[in-house]
Amino acid sequence: MNVLLPVLLITPLLSLFVGFSFSNKDEKAIFTVSVLGVLLNFIVLILLFFAYIYNGFEHMRFVGPVLYHTSETNLGFNLFLDGYGLAYMLVATFLTGIIVVFSKNYIHREKGYKRFFNNLKFFYFGLMLVLLADNLETLFVGWEVLGVTSFFLIGFYRERYLPVKNALKVVSLYRVADIALLLAIWVTHHYFGHSISFFDFEGFQGSEPHILNETFYQFMIPGVIFIAAMVKSAQFPFSSWLPRAMEGPTTSSAIFYGSLSVHIGVFLMIRTAPFWEENITFRLLIGTVGLTTCIMATLTSRVQSSIKTQIAYSSIAQIGFMFIEVALGFYWFAIFHFTSNAFFRSYQLLLSPSVLGYRIHEQLFHFVPPAAQGTKGLWNRIKLSIYILSIKEFNLDRFMYRFLWNPLKKTGNLFRFISTKSLFYIIVPLFLVGLFTVYNQDILSAALLRYLPEIYAGFGLVLILKSFVERDSVLSSWLLIFMNQLYLSLAFGFNEEFDFNQIHIFLSGIFLAAALGVWVILRLKKKGEDISLNQFQGHSYEYPRLAFLFVIACLAMAGFPITPTFIGEDLMLGHIHENQFPLLLLMVLNLILDGLVIFRIYSRLFLGKHKKGYHEFAYRSS
Question: What is the domain extent for residue 278?
Answer without folding.
Answer: 2-200+210-360
